[in-house]
Every structure is written in C-alpha cells, then in structure tokens.
Prior knowledge:
Blueprint: E1 3-5, H1 12-17, H2 35-43, H3 69-75, H4 79-84, E2 97-98, E3 104-105, E4 126-128, H5 132-144, E5 149-153, E6 156-160
Antiparallel strand pairs: 1-4, 1-5, 2-3, 5-6
Amino acid sequence: MRALGLLCPTSSSLATASSSCTCTCIYGDHCWSSALEFSSLESQLSHPLLYPRPAAAPCYPVNAPSGNCSALAQVWGDGNWHSDQPGAMEASNFETYMFKNRTIDACFLNTTLGIPCNQGSVPIIGVNATNPEDVQAAVQFAVQHELKLVVKNTGYACVTRF
Length: 162
C-alpha cells in the first residue's frame, strides 16, 4: 500500500513547539477543512480516505485493548507488515513526536512504559493512492488547503511542504 498522508498529524500547540512542523493549516485550527471538503476529495479517489492510527494502537487502552496485542507483538519485527499498515513506519521511532522540552507524543508497543497512546507523527487522514489520479487529487487538495503532504512508500515517509 502506498499512502499519502494529507495532514500534519499534530495539533497547533505541537506546531509551535517545533519549526520542523510548519503546516499553514493544522488539525484543530479554524482553517481545518470541513467534512464536506474531505467528502469532496474522497469522491475523486479510487478508495475511501484512510484514518491511520499508530501501529501499536490495538494494545490500548491497557486495561481493555481494542485489538490482540499478543498477535501484534508477533508481527512487530516484520517489515512487510509495517509496510502494509497506513499508520506504521518501518521503525516505530519515526511514529513519535518529540517536543522541545523532550516529552514524547507516541504510541508504544511496550505498554508497561505507562505512556498513553497518542497520534505522534502519524497523519490523521490519508489517501490510498493506487493510480495517478489519486496522487493528483491528493496533491491538489493539499495545495488548495495549505496542508503538509506526507508520502509513505513502504515503511518510510517523506514530508513535502507547499
């Protein structure tokens, strides 16, 4: 799966914490695209929009996991599995976001750390781009709405600013 993450995964408070995240419009801001605008984008695509979650999210909440954490632990080291997950990067440290004060926003497989599962650097909306028209629609939408575009190719992501 090749996914285009259309949105900066962080809130506006994170954007001010790091100059590396300088999206003009970020999730939670007043300029954030409406459900109708995303619906319009989705109507141009060959697949529904993706709503990626961090790869370890099925292990949370710790007291009542939403998925089978034991099964997840068994495939965690499999690069092909990570490649097929829209919210997973080849190395899970790329899914984390570190603030200047060195606190981390992430979702770790090791739930004994006591850290809640947060979105980290995983985009919150994405496109499963399987043809040139999907790529064109996603790029045009990102440009029109002043969003950061993240291109995931196998397990790695490349960030492009417009």
